[in-house]
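Researcher: Here's the sequence for the chain we discussed earlier.
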Amino acid sequence: MKKNVIAMVGVACMAALLTACTGSGTKTETTAAEQKEAGKLVMVTNAEFPPYEYYDKNEIVGIDADIARAIADKMGVELEIQDMAFDSLIPAVQSGKADFTAAGMTVNEDRKKNVDFTDTYAEAAQVIIVKEGSEIKTPDDLTGKKIGVQTGTTGDIYADDIENAEVKRYNKGMEAVMALTQDKIDAVIIDREPAKVFVKENAGLAILDEAFTEEEYAIAVKKDNKELLDKLNGAIKELKESGELKKIVDKYITAE
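Model: Thanks. This is the structure I predict for it:
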């Protein structure tokens, strides 16, 4: 956030290009709007969601990260990706801290009230993870159970509709899965592709055959930012038509 300065140093500050300054000339963080003017877009995500976004050493990679980089290339701008809690993503876009968020984010009516969505670029589903041998066989069996979800996700939203269920919220999907392995909860509701990764990495877990919900993913931008929305949609369309988007998805999700 830019610092307030007294009038006597205000003239000197104006000489600094697109930065705020103090009496010693210290620079402060630029906003997403300023970075856009400089040919940079800021994307926020929650890098705890493989294969859509996760860390490979110190770099955020995954389907969303690769798609965003491909979009930035087509727009001729640099992309900066910032990692934060999932439930902070939409507020970051609303406040102008970020230009957009791509985070395996499901399009739903509640979110549409706060942000605008691009055309969808992937289909997804919320699924249920249980321990092998669990008495939970279908979504209907979740009634009255302890269910783990990641805060702010659609799994979190939909879990509240389950009759007599006790919903336990976690900052990360992996934390919910760990709670399941420790018998602290009966099931986890989470997106299908991350669920596959968690089950593969944790013996004794299984995904129910019947999906909890079917969904679509899209990129979210600030309300009424039609210029950016149109540019993103144009790039997404090109990626679809060229087959590049499918190549990105296939890189991370192989046919079973």
